[in-house]
Amino acid sequence: MGKGKKVFLLVTLYLVLFSFYPLPFTLYPLSSTVRAESRLVSTATREGRLAVFDDAWLRINERYYDHTFHGLDWDAQRIAFRSLAAEASSSRELYTVLRRMIASLDDPHTRVFAPEEKFDWWRPRFLSIGLAVAEVDGLPTVVQVERDSAPQRAGLRVGDVIETVNGAAATSLIKNRLADLPAPASASSRFRASARLLDGPAEAAVELSWKTKGGRQKSARFDRRWEQRELGVRARREQGEFVVIEIDAFTKPIATAFAKALKEKLNGARGVILDLRANGGGDAEAMTDIASTFLGADFNLGQFTDRFGVSFTISTHSRSLFSPEPITQTRLPLVVLTSERTSSAAEIFIEALKVSKRATIIGTETCGCVLAVRTRHELPDGGLLDISEFDYQTAQGRRLEGHGIRPDEIITVERSDLYSGRDHALELATEKLRER
Asked: I need a labelling partner for 355 at 20 to 30 A (CA). Which of 197, 199, 209, 259 fits?
C-alpha cells in the first residue's frame, strides 16, 4: 500500500487493572503464528536462551518504527545484554534480561511476555495481590484495594503509603526501575515504575510494610495471584442532571453498550461527563464510533506512519462499522476526565475533542503512549513480542508519544482526597456543566 493511502486502522491500546500494561496499536487484529509444541526451543539450554534473545533483538531491529531508536545504540544493547541472557539461570531470568534491554527504549508499547504470561487484551488478566499503587506527593501510595482481598482484610486502605517490599525500600525499588530508562525520567515513566512496584512471579509471596492514615506502621504477607477482569462501560445520572459514563476501554461490545446507555440516560440530561481516567484505549472501530457521537462524521483523527513512510489515516463516520444503526449524535456540553492511565486510543479521542473545542478536559496529563503494533511476534520458546511499528500524528501534525495531553483544568490527586473518597475532578466537571 502506498504512502497516504487511506485505510481503516484497527487499534489495540493499554489498560490498567492492578498493573500497567499499555496495549499496542495494531494494523490488524492481534495475532501471531502459533508454533507446534515440538518445535519450541527450551530456555533450559544456553542455545535456547540465545535463540530467544537473538530473535527478539533482531525483530525489533528490523521493525521498530524509529530506525534511529531515539538515538539509542541498539547494537550496543545487544552486546550489553546478550551475555546476560546466555547465562540466565531460568526462563524468568531470561525474560528479566529482555525486559531490561527493551526498557532502554522507554516505549511502553514494545514489550515481551514469557510463554506462561500470554496476554489477551480483551479479557485481560494480571498478577496481583489485590491492590494498585501510584505516586502521590512523591510517595508510592495505595490508590485501589480490591474488595474482599487479603490486603483489605489486613487493613490496607486507599491512601496508605507503601514503605517496603520484601524488605527493600519502595522508593529505592522505583528509583532502580527508572535507572534503566533514558534520563530524565518522564512523568509517564515514573507512573509506570510506581504502578509496577509489586510485579513479580506468580504464586510468590510479597512482604509489605506500610504507613496508615494515623501514622501507624503495619506489615503483612500476601500472595500474587492471576486475576481476570471483564471490560465494560457504566453509565449513571449525577445529581439528576448529568450523564456520567465510565469507559474501561474501546471494544466493539463496549461501543454497543455505550450507544445503548447513551440513549437510555440522555433524555432530559444537561450534559455528559466521560470518565476515561482508567481507559488505556482499544480498537479504532470502537473508538471512532464513540468519537463520532460527539464529533460527527468525517473528522480526521490522525495518521500513522511506519519507518518506511507508509501512512494510514482514521476518521469518524455517520454509521457504525459493526451495527446497522446510525450513530446517535449529541451536542450536549461535554467534559472528559483524564489521568496518567489515559492512553493510546483514548488520547487520540481526547486530542480530537480538544482541538475541535468540543469538550473541556479535566484531570491530570495523559500517558503520552500512542504508537502502533502491526502484529504480535511469537518467540522461539512460545513467548510473545509486541513491537511499535507505527508512529502517530494528529491531523495538525502533533505527536502525542512522549508528550501526552495537558488538561484544560489540572486536578491532581491528594492523599486527603484518597482517604475521604472525595473526587475533586468529578466535582469540578459538574460545576463546569452547570455553568454552561
From this structure: 259
